[in-house]
Amino acid sequence: MTELKLLALDPEDLQIISTYVQDGVVRVGDVGFAERDNRFALLLNRYAWEVGNSRRSSGERRRSALHFDRVQAVQATGINLEATDGALELLGLIFEEQAAPGGFITLNFAGGGTIRLQVECIEARLADLGAAWSARVRPSHDLETKD
What we know:
Blueprint: E1 5-8, H1 11-21, E2 24-27, E3 31-34, E4 39-47, E5 60-69, E6 71-77, E7 87-97, E8 103-109, E9 114-119, E10 124-134
Antiparallel strand pairs: 1-10, 2-7, 3-4, 4-5, 5-10, 6-9, 7-8, 8-9
């Protein structure tokens, strides 16, 4: 098993990390902002999309850490950060530039919840922590648009 280690310093890099964390499951208690260190971090059980999954296999999940440096402020919407045993499904990351190279990184979760990070610049890291196991199900998304 090869452990994934990625660094994002620009919007294109961040989009790559977003692809790897799509459908990651996050426990609310594993999310935190170290204001003194200007670091926002979370632990997640990410679905390993890069692993060759066959139709007969549900794939695998891997324990991973995702953190963002140079974070100035954090705002959560639609997420109860006090419900530490709650679970969230991470759908992706989006960067909105304002006062380059700074801006906002938004973590979008299933159900409409978001965490918005105000950052001086993009500096994000994703690293697998070693644990991997068979996934119960392969995530799927309804791609059909509704009028």
